Amino acid sequence: MHTELHNEKRLLSGDEAVARGAWEAGLKVAAAYPGTPSTEILETLATFPDVDAQWSVNEKVAYEVAYGAAIGGARALTACKHVGLNVAMDPLMTSAYTGINAGLVVVVADDPGLHSSQNEQDTRWVGLYGKLPILEPSDPAEALEFTKLAFELSEQFDTPVLLRLTTRVAHSKQDVSVGVRVAGPHKAFRVEATKYVMVPRNAGPRHAVVEARLLKLRECAEQSPLNRVELRDRRLGFVTSGVSYLYVREMFPEASVLKLGFSYPFCDEKIRAFAAQVQELVVVEELDPFIETHLLALGLKLRAKHPSFQIGELRPEFIPAIVRGEEKQAKPFPARKPVLCPGCAHRAVFTVLRDLKLVVAGDIGCYTLGAAPPLASVHTCLCMGSGFTIHEGFRRAHVHGDRVVGVVGDSTFVHSGITGLINAVYNRVKGVLLILDNGTTAMTGAQHHPATGKTIREEPTQKLVLEDLCRACGADHVDVVDAMDTGAFRRTLEQRLQDDALSVIIARSPCWQLVRTRNAPPDFRREQCQQCYECLEIDCPALTKVEDGMIQIDPARCTGCNLCVDRCAYEALLPIREEPDADSCPGTCG
Ligand SMILES: Cc1ncc(C[n+]2csc(CCOP(=O)(O)OP(=O)(O)O)c2C)c(N)n1
Q1: Ligand 1 centre and the CA of 95: distance in Å?
Q2: Domains in the chain, start-ordered, CATH in brackets?
Q3: What is the mean pLDDT of the chain?
Q4: What is the tens place of the pLDDT at every residue in 37-95?
Q5: Probe ligand 1: pick from 443, 464, 512, max atoms within 8 Å of CB?
Q6: Lowest mean pLDDT among 132-136, 289-293, 585-589
Q7: Is residue 432 classed as helix, strand or coil in its secondary structure?
Q8: Peptide bond into 91 cis (omega under 30)
């Protein structure tokens, strides 16, 4: 599958190009937890048999596995979305002190415009904060090349290197020249406590190493061809990086540009020299004024973007307004309501939570879509794992007369929900915690996790049994119910809400995108319909109200789950029971 040909081009996304570049660089170990827009990096790496690839349980674990491999002598990579790096911040910050041994590349994919994220943080500050070098490719071809360079830089300076992508770079595709795999250096682990054992006595001197390294990295950034001066018309000079470079070139092809590919630490001399050669200096960057702040600190006179451009993604058509210093005037894209798939068991659960008028401490996953009306039954969403811990806070504040529940998905539970459950047990919290177990990490495209019993390569492995784990954590009651059986789920929930106990209910039903079984759509009997629209309250995209006020079922979308049937008090919707039929639709969700 992965032939080793010179001068060959492949159509690759930025994520695929990173994977290819890492493989060509002799990558041996790769670990990640999924997160859009970075997920495809590990998915691609898992297709290379000579890379030891894994889905880790969370980003901190992934970081530490990759770090261990790197100091152990194997070139290693970890990849995550921007908020994933927050989870890995603890090892990341101190690994800057210890340094690595074989190359360690940390790929982080930011999501300007929040296509699929809970915030819009700009990870370039992590380079500054952690004193780590940042490489920022503008397109997939650079993503491949920069990944290879990142390994070299990492080893040359004995430091983890941040390779920062954004959604457009990660997900756009380009013809990319691919090369051959090199063996990568062989670097045995050497016992060296002063380097690898970060107790205060050792960490102090290592801090000095970090500062000295940063000065050397600065010199390297000055010389680096990744920081490229393109002198053209000197009336206007742009300083830019990442995908913004492409937008500048598209909108101002005649202008001069300083393209920062090695974007931290800054190449001050190159920047000053460029500024001296152009009449007007304009910084174009997505999100925060990261480059701008530094250039102002250098005392350079520049055209700063209006603060309105710090929010949301840049688009090429915004560049002229940035040059003029004007406020953003953006026509919003047409809104499309995100909705749970037809047949999704999360819908059944949230219907019950809504009907019981509970306050729900929610979490992140497909089930966050339960926040949208008419389900409107996810009332918090902060970060992964917080469903259980916010529930605990709610209980301590006696929110809503303690008619509250905490909700997390199965992958989220393993990622960072377990500690919240243990905390609740330890601190004698009562209440009901729900694990919505659809047997996959659905939100990011159905990746395996420990409770699916399969590895990233679909190999069988020890399966984590969630109910056993919850019992071992000390929950008073652990019930497993069929999430699609709304009656049984409701009865169990009502019972557990009354108990003076800490209960976990595992609402289990496989993600419909995995099983794709269909029953016939229910029979709609017009004459029975009282137009109460109770059936629409489940927010199923297969059901719509049509012009004459009647209900229409889209047979192409309906999975025959019959959740709507349960809502109809007038027998206008009747189930047609058939043997389930495997669906042939090849589409995917999330
Ligand atoms: C720290 C962090 N890492 C990764 C993500 C991306 N992400 C969002 S939800 C989720 C997991 C969803 O799986 P699960 O909890 O099983 O719920 P499902 O989508 O299957 O309903 C992931 C990986 C994120 N938002 N934050």
Answers
A1: 26
A2: 8-223 (3.40.50.970), 227-324 (3.40.50.920), 345-515 (3.40.50.970), 517-582 (3.30.70.20)
A3: 95
A4: 999 999 999 999 999 999 999 999 999 999 999 999 999 999 999 999 999 999 999 99
A5: 443
A6: 585-589
A7: strand
A8: no
In short, whether 366's Cβ falls inside 6 Å of ligand 1 is yes
CA of 390 to the centre of ligand 1 (A): 17
- CB-based contacts of 377, cutoff 8 Å, min separation 6: 350, 353, 354, 358, 360, 370, 371
Structure tokens at 20: 């290819």
Residue 320 belongs to what H/E stretch? helix 319-324
Residue 349: per-residue pLDDT:
98
pLDDT, average across residues 355-368:
98
pTM above 0.90, yes or no: yes
- Cα 576 to averaged position of ligand 1 atoms, centre (Å): 35
- Judged against a pLDDT cut of 70, whether residue 559 lies above it is answered with yes
Burial 459-482 (b: 16+ CB within 10 A, else e): eeeeebebbebbeebebebbbbbe
User: Model confidence over 183-192: pLDDT tens digits?
Assistant: 988 899 999 9
Residue 84 beta carbon below 6 angstroms from any ligand 1 atom: yes
Residue 365 alpha carbon to ligand 1 centre in Å: 5
Residue nearest to atom 9 of ligand 1 (CA): 365
- Report the SS3 class of residue 162: strand
DSSP state of 334: P
Whether the Cβ atoms of residue 106 and residue 160 lie closer than 8 Å to each other: yes
Kindly give the residue spans of alpha helices, DSSP state H, lying in 340-448: 345-355, 386-397, 410-412, 418-426
Between β-strands 52-55 and 573-574, what pairing exists: parallel, antiparallel or unpaired? unpaired
Task: State residue 370's pLDDT score.
Answer: 97
The reply to whether ligand 1 has any atom less than 6 angstroms from the CB of 109 is no
Specify the pLDDT at position 5: 56
